[in-house]
Amino acid sequence: MAFGGETTILFVPGLRDHVEDHWQTHAARAIPGAVTVAPLAADRLSRAGQVAALDAALRAIAGEVVIVAHSAGCLTTVHWALAPTRTIRAALLVAPADIENPLPAGYPEPGALKEGGWLPIPRKALPFPAITVASRNDPLAAFDRVASFANAWGAALHDAGEVGHLNPAAGYGPWPEVFGLLDRLDDHARSAAL
Question: What pTM did the predictor assign?
Answer without folding.
Answer: 0.96
